[in-house]
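[Automated response] Your request has been received and processed.

Submitted sequence:
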Amino acid sequence: MRAIHEHEFEESPGLPAPLPKNETVLWQGSPDWRSLAIHVFHLRKIAVYFALMLAWQVSQLYDAEQALSVWLMPCVTSLVLASSALACLALWAWLSSRTTLYTITDRRVVMRVGIVLSLTFNLPFKRIVAADLRALNDGSGDISLKLPEQDKIGFFHLWPHARGAALKHPQPSLRCVPQVQAVGELLMSAWSRQGVAYSVTPTTEQNSSPAMAMRLNA
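Generated structure:
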């Protein structure tokens, strides 16, 4: 059975209103929740941390002269708590993916985000100063959009759909998009048709693939 997303019940999925007749949707997609869990919520790193702490706890409490239940129960409690925390992070990533829909039209980028409170960010191409594409090893990746200084959006209104390194001037980001290279090329093509010049240069951000990374400059 196919999973149903809540935005599928909207008149115009992922959009605040029906598109004008002279505007066309070129692409719509959501974050890959597994990639989101690993690269945005850092599930793998936190799991390694918990594993190390649990191993340290076992080494400190182990006593061959005591009954097994005496030193093992605190470790089991820690394991249950750690597993619950990891499950909550995974669930958060899954819900973020299900309630997010990114849209690229021939005129703008629209981000429909929010688990409890749904927000829609409308980003016309003419208001985008630059864009960075960061490809991850699994083929997904991020496309971060730099806006003019006067068009500031609160970081916590955007997160986790914001570039982590840009706190002073938050950049809306399409996070963990599957097949990000193809999406980036589509965005470049649509953006250039609006009369915006762009250049392509490699980036050196962590976890990026230099062969798939590009920067677009208005």
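Summary generated for your ticket: Residues 102-217 form one domain. The helical segments are 33-39, 43-61, 68-98, 155-158, 180-193.
If you did not submit this request, please reply to this message.
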